[in-house]
């Protein structure tokens, strides 16, 4: 008596995942190519804020406090903290940007919840700007409030598909920032200026290039580990 035929193994999930992964890669390449385009300026400032919030979160979780966050139109940022573990706080900026981006991409899987997620992100940006970004009369404060209100309005009023694409866009952009800004700050022509890597080098006597390389490798490793969950 012949045995039962085995059901064919389906790869439908994998087949559906590939277009999404290729779409994210295409978006990343497109954003990377036009990284310094003036049209992307608002997004670059937003991920600078993510970077500074990364410092802030680590400061608070290690027992410190956040005194203020500053943003400047030349895409610079500053997080003034007191107490906490300075070593981890300095690492929290670029790694925080990476984590922000990865979390947004993971949340994008809940497509139906995209409006609520964007609205919540808007409230987070608005609250952080009102509570932490200083001085009150400054580019950073005005930008943070306007960006928070814009995201909140988009989450409340725009269609789900618009919010879903915005969620993916912000996720990819934040991940790219965590990688490309390290490249520019540490390995680029301006690498001799003040940066998290320079301050870590002064603290640990480990060269800034090593810290920059470690952040890039950590970011790439995280992306490889989560590649199946990000698309």
Question: Any descriptors?
Answer:
single chain, 231 residues, mainly alpha, 70% helix, globular
What is the number of helical segments per DSSP (H or I, 4+ residues)? 9
Structural class: mainly alpha
- Report the average pLDDT across residues: 85
Order of helices and strands: HHEEHHHHHHH
Instruction: Point out poorly predicted stretches.
Output: 7-14
Please outline the major beta sheet.
2 strands, antiparallel
Strand tally: 2
Backbone CA Rg: 20 Å
User: How many independent structural domains?
Assistant: 1
Name the overall outline.
globular
Task: Bin the strand percentage.
Answer: 5-15%
Lateral arrangement of strands in the main beta sheet:
1-2
The oligomerization state is single chain
Percent helix, as a range, is over 70%
């Amino acid at each position: 008596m012949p045995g039962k035929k085995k059901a064919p193994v389906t790869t439908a999930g994998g087949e559906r995942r590939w277009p999404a992964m290729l779409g994210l890669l295409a978006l990343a390449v497109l954003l990377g190519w036009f990284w310094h385009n003036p049209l992307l300026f608002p997004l670059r400032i937003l991920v600078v804020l993510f970077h500074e919030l990364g410092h802030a979160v680590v400061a608070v979780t290690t027992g410190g406090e956040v005194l203020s966050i500053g943003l400047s139109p030349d895409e610079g940022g500053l997080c003034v903290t007191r107490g906490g573990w300075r070593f981890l706080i300095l690492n929290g900026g670029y790694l925080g940007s990476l984590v922000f981006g990865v979390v947004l991409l993971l949340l994008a899987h809940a497509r139906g919840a995209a409006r609520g997620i964007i609205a919540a992100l808007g409230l987070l940006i608005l609250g952080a700007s009102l509570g932490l970004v200083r001085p009150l009369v400054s580019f950073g404060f005005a930008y943070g409030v306007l960006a928070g209100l814009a995201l909140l309005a988009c989450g409340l009023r725009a269609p789900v598909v618009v919010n879903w694409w915005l969620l993916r866009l912000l996720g990819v952009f934040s991940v790219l920032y965590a990688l490309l800004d390290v490249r520019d700050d540490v390995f680029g022509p301006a690498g001799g200026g003040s940066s998290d890597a320079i301050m870590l080098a002064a603290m640990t006597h480990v060269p800034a290039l090593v810290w920059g390389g470690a952040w890039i490798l950590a970011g790439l490793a995280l992306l490889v580990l989560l590649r199946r969950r990000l698309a």
